Structures are given as structure tokens and as C-alpha cells.
Amino acid sequence: MIEVHDLHRHFGGFRAVDGATLKIKEGSITGLIGPNGAGKTTLFNVIAGVLKPTSGRVTMAGRDITGLPPHDLFHMGLLRTFQIAHEFSSMTVRENLMMVPGEQAGEQLWNTWFKRRAIAEEERRLAARADEVLDFLTIAHLADEKAGNLSGGQKKLLELGRTMMVDAKIVFLDEVGAGVNRTLLNTIGDAILRLNKERGYTFVVIEHDMDFIGRICDPVICMAEGHVLAEGSLDEIKANEQVIEAYLGTGLKNKDQLAETGA
């Protein structure tokens, strides 16, 4: 579905992404791991149009999407969430979801004067859709809560819910487990698995929690120093000498430590 060809993103003399090449298979949940500074988030930002690449190419279903802005990619079904959730804190959870679909009738001044009935009907449909999403995510009880009052994990669920308000094809999740307690992380994992199996979503997940990665992701891609170091199952990745050295710098003698630390 997504192919990245010799992608580079430089910041002055610093090569954050340095010749990354990888493929994301349609219908997969792909884990992206690596030590801090490996270039994972920068890679996400380039694929999702937040940053322009220095060189290289990104394709989606065979179409060149290199450098396309996020709003164009959004309409193509490519969505990206962030490590720190971005919500409209003064709006309710339901209203946050209703804001997602583009080109709503109420966005045009002319319609607010002459098509109020059409706007009201669209808002009813969006509210019903938002309630379905919240029910799917098991947070229907928070529908009328101000989004700013949610916990970190609940905000991550809300971000996942935003992807369900449009026809998402592939979703890039950046550290979905950051600041999230284990119970809510399991709920998020359940939702990702259901979206993948029941609705055909493709996911790419940056995460440091190896238990979470092992539960939902296959394959797993490991990055280091801006390029892809290894790809395979999580067990294969953990047994890879290059991966172990990238994390610990000491080779196979610390293989057990890698497993214990969940690095």
C-alpha cells in the first residue's frame, strides 16, 4: 500500500532520515521501533506530508504522493496521529468527532442563511455517526464531556475515533501508549485490532512498549540512524544482532537484557 524509496530528510547537517526504504502491506498492522533519534517520527512526518523530503519518493497504491500536503493525503485516506493528542479542549468529545469530516454545509456562509434545514440534518447525521464511534471505542459515557478533561489514554482513543469519522485507509499512530495506563492501552489495542479485522484499516504504529507491539503488530520494522535496520516478526527482531547493538551497543551478550527491558 505504502512504499518508501530511498527517503532522506536532512536538517542542515543532521540526517534524521537517511535513505529509508520500506513497504507497508495493505491490511497489516506494522510496528515501527528503534532507539530514540532513529528517525521514526520524522519518517512519519514526511510520509504524512507534515515535512517535505530532502530526496526520495513515497507512493500509495502506486500513486506518487511525495510532498503532498496533509489535507490532500487526508482526502486520500492517509491519516496521522501525534504523540501528544490534539483536541479542541473546550468542545465536547462528540463535537470533536463531528468536526472531522471536511466540506460540511455549515462551513459556507451562504448555506447558513439559506440552507439551515440541510445543515441541521447533516449535524444530526454527524452526531449519530460520532455516537456510533464512541460506542465502538467503549467511551460513549464521555460523549458530553469536555475533551480537555479527558485523561491521556482517553484522548488517544478520541484521536483514534477521529480516523473513524472519515474513510481512513491507512493510519499512522505515533506512540499511542505514551502516558497511557495499561487498562486503557489494552482498550486502544482492542480497537486497533477490531478496526483492522472488521473494517480493513491498515496501521503503522510507533511504540516503545514491546508487549503492546508484540500483541498487535506483524511485521515489525526497526530503524536506527535514519534507515531501516531490520524487518520481521518481533521475535526475529529481538534476536537480530544489529538491532541489539543499536539499542544496547554491546551485542549478543546482552540479548536477555533486551528481552527484559522491552527495548
From TrEMBL:
Keywords, in A-Z order: ATP-binding, Nucleotide-binding, Transport
Entries under SUPFAM superfamilies matching the protein: P-loop containing nucleoside triphosphate hydrolases
One Pfam family hit: BCA_ABC_TP_C
InterPro entries, sorted: AAA+_ATPase, ABC_AA/LPS_Transport, ABC_transporter-like_ATP-bd, ABC_transporter-like_CS, BCA_ABC_TP_C, P-loop_NTPase
Domain ABC transporter span(s) in chain numbering: 2-250
GO molecular function, one term: ATP binding
Name of the protein in its database record: ABC transporter ATP-binding protein
Protein species of origin: Jannaschia ovalis
